[in-house]
Write a structure and sequence with these properties.
Layout: H1 2-22, E1 28-33, E2 36-40, E3 45-51, H2 54-69, E4 91-96, H3 110-128, H4 132-135, H5 143-156, H6 158-161, H7 167-185, H8 188-191, E5 197-199, E6 208-210, E7 216-218, E8 225-227, H9 230-240, H10 248-253, H11 263-270, H12 274-284, H13 288-304, H14 306-321
Antiparallel strand pairs: 1-2, 2-3, 3-4, 5-8, 6-7
Helix pairs in contact: 5-7, 5-12, 7-11, 11-14, 12-13
Pfam families: APH
GO molecular function: transferase activity
Keywords: Transferase
Length: about 325
């Protein structure tokens, strides 16, 4: 009982904090997901989001402000106020609410995939021309280092993973990852060379928002980094491969390899099973309840899609040998 009362008291204090920031009484308050709330006053709706630190909040405010200055308006807009002090040491940002299309947005059709990729490339073009002082506010990102660390963690987690994933599947993913890293480690000079932009870092479908008026927005820049644009392009390809029926030809038809600075290296990077390794490492670190909830998705990802993934590996390798 004491824990519930304490939680209720903290919610009341957070409401008072939000009212002070907005300078209006709150008439509606709804939690959308962890650390994100929809708040309504008599005059407007806003999104309140908690950030990992004040530095991260200020970085995103800087990014979206510079985007708007450059003419890129299809993103979130932070509200400016004179009292931006933290709440109990936690940083909160307030953004204008974008009314979403009830149908939402997914990578379910070619038209939607193309629209999202066009928007992403427009974002890259704008951030590539930001002042150097703005770019330097963002940490550098090194794709190869991240994948090497992910692979090591996957191997360390083997004993726990093979309790769920048959060893033949584990061996295949381990082999594909090792082969891709072996190829890419020989080309580090190509992977991290300029030009740089501010990459988004998490181009999942839920970070594209279709407004009720039909306009598409790019949101949530928590993982924005200074890096070559192809790192976002590569992640986007991995995200849409199921919708592309695991076809390299479809990715090429949609123009998703056109921006690669080196086509061969980009194809070699597509061989790395990044989503499978990422999700298994996450699964191992989860609690029992979360594992039960997540298992159907992970089973489909790594077992149900195994045949398509194996065929895609062969298609890419044939192209590399041609």
């Amino acid at each position: 009982m004491g824990g519930r009362r304490q939680e209720g008291d903290e919610t009341k204090r957070l409401l008072l904090y939000a009212e002070n920031r907005l300078q209006e009484p709150i008439v509606d308050w709804r939690r959308l997901r962890d650390r994100v709330w929809l708040i309504g006053t008599k005059t407007k709706k806003v999104i309140m989001k908690q950030y990992g630190s004040d530095t991260r909040l200020k970085r995103q405010m800087l990014l979206t402000s510079e985007l708007r200055k450059s003419g890129f308006t299809q993103t979130c807009r932070f509200l400016e106020d004179d009292n931006d002090s933290p709440f109990q040491g936690k940083a909160f940002g307030f953004m204008a609410y974008i009314e979403e299309d009830p149908a939402g947005f997914t990578f379910g059709t070619e038209a939607d995939i193309r629209a999202a990729f066009r928007l992403l490339k427009q974002y890259h073009e704008k951030t590539a021309h930001f002042p150097q002082a703005v770019k330097m506010e963002f940490p550098r990102f090194f794709q190869l280092r991240k994948w090497q660390a992910r692979y090591r963690t996957f191997l360390e987690n083997k004993e726990q993973i093979v309790r769920y994933l048959p060893e033949t599947y584990f061996a295949a993913y381990e082999r594909w990852a090792a082969e891709a890293l072996n190829r890419l480690e020989k080309k580090q000079h190509l992977l991290h060379r300029p030009p740089y932009c501010i990459t988004h870092g998490d181009v999942a479908h839920h970070n594209f928002l279709r407004a009720k008026n039909g306009e598409l927005y790019l949101i949530d820049f928590d993982l924005a980094r200074l890096a070559p644009a192809w790192t976002d392009d590569l992640q986007f390809c991995n995200r849409v491969l199921p919708a592309a029926s695991w076809s390299l030809a479809a990715l090429e038809k949609w123009g998703m390899l056109d921006g690669a600075p080196d086509r061969e290296t980009f194809l070699e990077a597509l061989l790395y099973p990044t989503d499978v390794l990422r999700e298994w490492n996450r699964f191992v670190g989860s609690g029992k309840k979360e594992k039960e909830q997540y298992w159907p998705h992970l089973s489909l990802l790594s077992i149900g899609q195994f045949g398509e993934r194996a065929r895609f590996q062969k298609e890419v390798k044939r192209r590399l040998q041609a």
